[in-house]
């Protein structure tokens, strides 16, 4: 697993209070990890803070799974 | 209209206070005259004029909430949920077949999520001006979120809102609950209040008003209502909850009826932002209106749990009002300020003092006014302030006063239950 994927997993475990084993690439924040709409916004903010980037709202709306988050960050984090 | 008014009783109590984190430990502290004040642990007090408060003892949110859940709750909501849970369990409401559409929550707080506000603004101010507010900021901050959380936890879908009248807030909640149930708008209402502002802004703000005691050399005796050397109130934090229920509803489900809520009164001083009316006009009016609402006369009251915050002016005007309302009977009844022990819980004061009044009446024990050293000649020596130690006394009915900055006054009367 990439370093980015590890840091993403850590944030998700911390904010959603889920077990590490549940944080699979396919896992959906809302359907599988129990996040509500506010949790999802908070996750995006935490990614922005952790990786020091800004994720535009229209992009953020397309990030609904762990894998999508990792892919987006791997592409955009320098 | 459903006339006449229905009777309202109390079937559950919960408390999270500087004296104890449950009803039995709170009562134990009250009748043993325990002082709840100590040096503040929640922030660095080095530069503050007042360095002490009545904080909770050994309250760890993670004993009650999952970490994920606790993070989304301001401390005042955490305290609300803990006290409400004790009261709900005590009432047995969830074990009965109740119509949850007819169970409400009415909750008071003076300020709401101040800790959340401070944290978010610190965060914003330390950044470059980019607004990165947490999506939970507003729903943690707003005062009405406490009754919202309580309703969501139990699925209580009846009337639900918050009351705000500074230090009278939770007495307003109790009186609103009384009236809604009386009018048949709900079968039961969880009411009470919570406050958690032992923060830099809370202490600094009240210090700026010269409202707080600055007796840093002896915090435990700083809250000394009616003492000549009282120098302000001691800030407290905590929560109190009461399950109020329509009498026939409580009887039908075989609930343990603790006491009857006889009536409540409301008034305003219409005088000053923070100073009480010098002759206690608002206090006089509110006790008169509570008695009238309860259909009682002054001689029916055996105990007054006073607002008595230990401020130089407030204590005097309240006692002047009591003497005017109760006349000669003022000498027969017991008066005490449990704030001498708990400190001033602001928006939660009404709830925990209502509970102190209820327990006084059900146990026939008056909790004391501790920290009395020197008589103040402003007070009539024939009055019984229950100084130093608890006293045994048959309490047919108890009245609890609360007065808030802004000139809001609320009084509620509880009377021993009999069929």
Structure summarized in a few sentences:
The complex is a heterodimer of chains A (78) and B (419). By secondary structure, chain A is an all-alpha fold.
Notes on the protein architecture:
The complex is a heterodimer of chains A (78) and B (419). Chain A has helices at residues 3-16, 37-51, 57-60, 66-76. Chain A has 78 residues and is mainly alpha-helical. Chain A has a single domain, classed as ACP-like (Non-ribosomal Peptide Synthetase Peptidyl Carrier Protein, Chain A, Orthogonal Bundle). The longest helix of chain A is centred in the middle third of the chain and has 15 residues, at 37-51. Chain A is globular. Chain B has one domain: 3-Layer(aba) Sandwich (Peroxisomal Thiolase, Chain A, domain 1). Chain B is 32% helix and 18% strand. In chain B, α11 (312-326) links the parallel β9 and β10. Chain B is globular. The two termini of chain B are 25 Å apart. The mean pLDDT of chain B is 96. Chains A and B meet through α2 of A and α2 of B.
């Amino acid at each position: 697993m990439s370093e980015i994927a590890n840091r993403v997993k850590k944030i998700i475990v911390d904010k959603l209070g889920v077990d590490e084993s549940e944080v699979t690439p396919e896992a959906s924040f809302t359907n599988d990890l129990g996040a509500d709409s506010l949790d999802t916004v908070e996750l995006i903010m935490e990614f922005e803070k952790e990786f020091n980037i800004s994720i535009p709202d229209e992009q953020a709306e397309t990030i609904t799974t762990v894998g999508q988050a990792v892919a987006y960050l791997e592409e955009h984090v320098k | 209209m459903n006339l006449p008014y229905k009777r309202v009783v109390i079937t559950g109590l919960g408390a999270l206070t500087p004296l104890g984190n449950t009803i039995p430990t709170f009562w134990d502290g009250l009748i043993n005259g325990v002082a709840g004040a100590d040096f503040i642990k929640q922030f660095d007090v080095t530069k503050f004029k007042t360095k002490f408060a009545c904080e909770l003892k050994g309250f760890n949110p993670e004993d009650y909430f999952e970490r994920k859940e606790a993070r989304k709750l301001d401390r005042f909501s955490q305290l609300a949920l803990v006290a409400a849970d004790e009261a709900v369990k005590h009432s047995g409401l969830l074990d009965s077949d109740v119509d949850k559409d007819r169970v409400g929550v009415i909750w008071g707080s003076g300020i709401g999520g101040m800790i959340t506000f401070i944290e978010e603004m610190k965060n914003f101010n330390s950044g470059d001006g980019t607004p990165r507010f947490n999506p939970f900021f507003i729903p943690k901050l707003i005062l009405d979120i406490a009754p919202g959380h309580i309703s969501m936890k139990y699925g209580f879908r009846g009337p639900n809102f918050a009351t705000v009248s500074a230090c009278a807030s939770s007495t307003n909640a109790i009186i609103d609950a009384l009236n809604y149930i009386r009018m048949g708008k709900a079968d039961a209402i969880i009411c009470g209040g919570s406050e958690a502002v032992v923060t830099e802004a809370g202490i600094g703000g009240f210090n700026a008003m010269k409202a707080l005691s600055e007796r840093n050399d002896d915090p435990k005796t700083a809250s000394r209502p009616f003492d000549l050397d009282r120098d302000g109130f001691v800030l407290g934090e905590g929560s109190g909850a009461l399950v109020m229920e329509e009498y026939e509803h409580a009887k039908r489900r075989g609930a343990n009826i603790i006491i009857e809520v006889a009536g409540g009164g409301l008034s305003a001083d219409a005088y000053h932002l923070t100073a009480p009316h010098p002759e206690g006009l608002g206090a006089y009016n509110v006790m008169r209106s509570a008695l009238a609402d309860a259909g009682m006369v002054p001689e029916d009251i055996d105990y007054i749990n006073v607002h008595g915050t230990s401020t130089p002016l407030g204590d005097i005007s309240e006692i002047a009002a009591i003497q005017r309302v109760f006349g000669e009977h003022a000498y027969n009844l017991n008066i005490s300020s449990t704030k001498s022990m708990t400190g001033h819980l602001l928006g939660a004061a009404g709830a925990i003092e209502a509970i102190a009044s209820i327990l006084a009446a059900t146990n026939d024990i008056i909790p004391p006014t501790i920290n009395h050293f020197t008589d103040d000649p402003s007070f009539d020596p024939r009055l019984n302030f229950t100084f130093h130690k608890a006293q045994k006394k048959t309490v047919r009915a108890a009245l609890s006063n609360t007065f808030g900055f802004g000139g809001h006054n609320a009084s509620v009367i509880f009377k021993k239950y009999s069929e």
